[in-house]
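Please, structure for the following, as tokens.
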Amino acid sequence: MLPREGPARSQSRRLGIAAHARDHLSRRPVIARFRFTPPAPYSLKLTAARFSRFPEIVDLFDGRTYRRLLRVDSRPVLLTVRQPGAVSKPILDVRLEGKVARAPAARAAARFVIERALGATVDLRPFYRALRSDPVLAPSLSAFRGLGVAGWSDVWEALVTTVLCQQVNLKFAYDIRRELAAALGLSARIGGKTFHAFPPPERLAEESAGSLRRFRLSRSKAETIRRLARAFARGELSQAELEALPDAAVVERLTAIKGIGTWTAETVLLRGLGRLDAFPAGDLGVVKYLAQGLFARTGRATEAEMRRRAESWRPWRGLALVYAYAELARRREG
């Protein structure tokens, strides 16, 4: 016969079981869900495909599901976005997972990524109507219906990533971006997988230009990134400041920073601020590949020539550029 438990031991055991149960419940994931309705048409599959072109660990897309680790009050929250509905009646299912997933700040951060990184708040219909007879773009408007501008979630990330892409192979640039996020960004293991957030300016401001060079950066790029990090960390440059400026003033403000040229500023306008008329005409893809592939040039065009050709696309030159690249890829594959 087993010995009978005394009252103290029995109570201790009950408390232990209750504590274990509370501990188990505390480890259950905190999840929040909501739905977001973009203007029709919208295609997550077409828009987010840009994130699968390069070695990415921040913006993840597998052809159906987009994931990104958010930093909300210095805590990790995993954002997951899917599109169960049709392009003509788009609905995005949004899921947030993390200890602060139900906080208003987490929902606001998710909506901002959906707007900027996934381009899901743009009404494409006026653009389609205006350019439906364009000799270059008309075929792409039907072939890529619902394609939006995929970008970066904020101006800071857009600036750093674009600086990394200056005058180098894009795969190499994204390799460095991946290394920066893995080494300096917030990370979290969720659902058996490790996710990484892009490092904030405060973290990169702690690095010297010399220490940043361990990421295979040239001295000039390391100095530019540190200069940007310190400006953002000190409040000398901010998302809010740039959001409030018109396009030309943004370019003027950014190009006043050593290491930031017109191409970088215009790319940030398009991919970081969602300005749909921004046209980085100095991009190699514009002056060479688009000039030859869509405008039948035998050699490289000048930046001025490509700006003239894009005049008929106003006020959607940047959005038109996204469709021009998609059309160029379609012709190459065909």
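Strands lie at 31-36, 60-61, 65-72, 75-82, 92-97, 187-190, 193-196. The longest strand covers residues 65-72.
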